[in-house]
What does this fold into?
Amino acid sequence: MRAATAPALDAVSTRRGQIREIFFPSARARHGCYSSLVPFPSARRRLLIVDDEPSIVERLRTHFAPRYEVDTATSPTSAIERFEAQRPDVVFLDIGRQGADGIMLLTYLRDVDPRVAVIVVTANPSSMLAAECVKAGAFGYVPKPLNLVYLDHLAALAADQLAGRRAG
It folds into this structure.
């Protein structure tokens, strides 16, 4: 049985090598021969995580790092600096128990670039706060404790909609 599957595996490996060479050209190809003919893969989508709890920031960073270029901030000031330096595709923004500073930051981020999806994450279960966030332009509202599968779906949906808006 092994002898029968080995050629098939070799064919798959060869095919992967060809695909890899087409989309991820070797150093020789990048430096002259056919670099203008080879399509480069699109850049990874950028994600900014803003939360004042370092453990949550680290948990989300670790979770999203394999699929996104992740940047983090633990204060509104550092969030603004990172947002302006490397415009993310999606922002996960924690709005604290009081909510006022988080709403102001949400409004600021939406004013700077309304195309960026801001998803509010909070431990505050208030429906009034959720309504304020949506009114201020939040893409979504996620209560804690965090459901990582749901966050995956929201991030993908938000990034896809952003890609559509940039293309259109």
In short: The domain at 46-167 is CATH 3.40.50.2300 (Rossmann fold). Confidence is low (pLDDT under 50) at residues 1-42.
